[in-house]
């Protein structure tokens, strides 16, 4: 079974990955980086995907050498310490506890370092969406310019209207207003916004969401 994702979702995932990683696998560019590079349709927007853009620019700088990148080498296993000749000196008891304590201590140190790093970065950018509304009037002679002005009077924290809407013919001379709004998901409810548009009942017959896209 194959699963496909949108380019925006793919870029978002990669941007999060490259926030803490320099390459797809290993400590240097490899064939895995070449595969991901070729899967992208072009250079990502540095303002939206800064970490992905940094990686993309580095890989792109290799030019034709991208095609000759080798697979990342697996990390070498640490050599086992030489066995002690005198088995009587081996500590058969308590060693597991010492190892567990060291591992737990290291785990806590890394966890604290991760939390400190996240705290220093602060909250990430607010999640946003773009909504396309189809607003239908009652009659063909409805003043659509006035309707658009009224819609744009709706103000909410996290709401930004497009500069201009579009009139689209429906039937019998009636035209609907199609207009985009960008909203911060945590602040603006799509249903609440639609309800506010319908409140202009002298002009608005119905409101539909023609498109909804995460940014």
Any overview of this molecule?
The chain has 215 residues and is of the alpha+beta class. It has helices at residues 7-18, 31-39, 50-60, 95-121, 144-152, 190-198, and strands spanning 128-137, 159-161, 166-171, 174-184, 204-214.
Largest sheet properties: 5 strands, antiparallel
Query: Judging from the principal axes of the Cα atoms, what is the shape?
Result: elongated
Mean pLDDT metric: 83
Radius of gyration: 29 Å
Order of helices and strands: HHHHEHEEEHE
- Class by helix and strand content? alpha+beta
pLDDT < 50 stretches:
none
Tell me the span between the first and last alpha carbons. 27 Å
Quick one: how many beta strands? 5
List keywords for this structure.
215 residues; alpha+beta; five-stranded antiparallel beta sheet; 6 helices; elongated
What does the secondary structure layout of this molecule look like, with pairings?
Layout: H1 7-18, H2 31-39, H3 50-60, H4 95-121, E1 128-137, H5 144-152, E2 159-161, E3 166-171, E4 174-184, H6 190-198, E5 204-214
Antiparallel strand pairs: 1-4, 1-5, 2-4, 3-4
Report a brief summary of the structure.
The protein has 215 residues and is of the alpha+beta class.
